Amino acid sequence: MKTFSRVASVFLVLPSLLWAQQPDRATVLSHEKEIRALESAMMNAAAEKGSAGYMSFYAEDAVELPNGAQMILGKESVAKTMTFLDDKNNKLTWSPVHIDVSASGDLAYSFGDYEFRSVGQDGKPSVERGKYTTIWKKQKDGKWKVVLDMGNANPEPKEPASR
Q1: Beta strands, E only, the chain
Q2: Which residues contact 15 (CB under 8 A, 6 or more apart)?
Q3: Which of 16, 40, 119, 157 is the residue whose CA sits 20 to 30 A from 34?
Q4: Looking at residue 121, what is its pLDDT?
Q5: Given phi > 0 = left and psi -120 to 50 = alpha, else beta, which region is 21?
Q6: What is the widest separation between alpha-carbon atoms in the chain?
């Protein structure tokens, strides 16, 4: 009988524990809205202040996983690779397709599409399009910061076959 009582109590308590871990829909939407606003603010900061504005959204222990290159560890090291944002001929824009926030409300990720417009040394404009993933983590001070970012270019569209 004791075993039955223990098993029955687990089945009675388990649903309430699972329910308690799930944030309500309003909280989830609030977190998603906050991350979407941060993504927009980060893009604006990059356009207005270059690499310094962009990097102000990164955590000290951030990791960058660049397309076709070795991973970069730490905000200071990542910042050295972002100076291309200081050139006013370069413009990086992106748009999240999806944002998800953990049940605990301290970790989030976004993914979407980016576009990088620049002017080459030959004076010709170029456009690179791709996709990205960013992982955000709430810091001890309550602010969200980027802890991991990665992107890779989409292949160039194929020319239509001639008939």
Answers
A1: 58-65, 72-73, 91-101, 107-119, 125-138, 144-153
A2: none
A3: 16
A4: 83
A5: alpha
A6: 84
> Is-contact 158 149, C-beta < 8 A?
no
Give dist(CA 20, CA 113) in Å, integer: 34
Q: What is the pLDDT along the chain (163 residues), one digit of tens a residue?
A: 555 455 445 445 545 544 455 667 778 788 899 999 999 999 999 999 999 999 999 999 999 999 999 999 999 999 999 999 999 999 999 999 999 999 889 999 999 999 999 998 888 999 999 999 999 999 999 999 999 999 999 987 776 655 5
Rounded CA separation 142/7 (Å): 40
**Residues of 94-107 as b/e, b for ≥16 C-beta within 10 angstroms?**
bebeebebeeeeee
Do 147 and 125 form a contact (C-beta atoms < 8 A)? Answer: no
The two structure tokens encoding residue 138: 């709430």
Class of domain 25-153: alpha beta
User: HEC string of 17-51?
Assistant: HHHHHCCCHHHHHHHHHHHHHHHHHHHHHHHHHCH
Single-letter amino acid code for the residue at 33: K
Residues 9, 13, 14: CA angle, nearest 5 degrees: 115
